[in-house]
Amino acid sequence: KGPLDDQVQNIIRQVGEMHRSCDMLAANSSFIRLLVDSKFDVAFTYQYHYCPIGAIHAAGIPTWIWLDVGALMDSIAEFAGVPQPPSYCTPITMDAGNELTFAERINSFLGQRDTQKQYKALIGLETAAWRKYHGDNPDLQKLASDAPLIIVNSHELYELPSPSLHNIINIGSVGISSKNAKNLTGEFAARVDASNLGHIVISYGSLTPMYLMPETWRNAFIRACTAFPDVQFLIRHEHPEDIQPLLPPNAFAAVAAAERLTVASESSRNRRSWWIQHTPDNLFIGNIINKTKK
């Protein structure tokens, strides 16, 4: 039994209870009335479950956008009609590359079959919740299949090849300009200059601060740093004095990991740079807003 087994089981239990929260939402007539009276022109919903799609329909919002904060989810692809050949389109949770062995293709086929059963069962329960309080509400699967626009936080350049459709738009990648970039100074400059194979910036932002990570997760990061002694790790941490004594010599923690400067600086241009970060909904929405302004 691994250290994360209990957490994984807890997540599975929470997913299994999603339809109960949907029942509460569908029963909240005052909230639905508020949505109707607000006369929204467009609504955004996310990829984890389908209850908000029912709320959008009940409120009569003219159009909506399905947001996916990572690669295209299996469930969204299924309902949108995107072909997912298991011979090279593996389930999103499967650890596989773009070349599959025979055994991996079998696992991909079985994984797709099992995950389809799970999310179709969930969408069936959530459809029942809306019909319980709103009469002959359309099947949420049918509403999902009519999604006008699906925005995916991914990019063709670094995702494995897979089919797509005209209403799926990728807005992923990190845009960092090196214009007017200056040289790094102090500890950052010394470590970038000393790196043999390059450096990795690890920053999870303010929504998921590293000091709140479980100890098992923190130790996993430390072991990863130790496993690559020729790579420098620059870690954003709110309390660097707590973690620095635990880090190997090739890792450095600071309150601000200077993500943009470290990746785009003159010091980094002739060296390999990587950036490990999270993809929360707030960054996703910010990306949409920025691209809309352009």
Structural class of the secondary elements?
alpha/beta
Domain module tally? 2
Count of DSSP H/I helices: 12
What share of the residues lie within helices?
40-55%
Low-confidence stretches: none
- Beta-strand level of the residues, as a percent range? 5-15%
**Rg measurement, Å:** 22 Å
- Mass-distribution shape: globular
Mean pLDDT: 79
Based on DSSP secondary structure assignment, what is the total number of beta strands?
Answer: 8
Biggest sheet details:
4 strands, parallel
Order of helices and strands: HHHEHEHHHEEHEHEHEHEH
Strand order across the largest sheet: 1-2-3-4
Distance between the termini: 50 Å
Question: What would your notes on this structure say?
Answer:
There is one protein chain. This protein has helices spanning 5-16, 18-27, 29-38, 51-59, 74-80, 102-134, 140-145, 186-194, 215-227, 240-243, 259-264, 281-293, and strands at residues 42-45, 63-68, 149-152, 168-170, 199-202, 232-236, 251-254, 273-276. With 294 residues, it is of the alpha/beta class. The mean pLDDT is 79. A four-stranded parallel beta sheet has the order 1-2-3-4, covered by helices on one side. A four-stranded parallel beta sheet has the order 7-6-5-8. The relative contact order is 0.11. The chain has two domains: 5-170, no CATH class; 186-276, no CATH class.
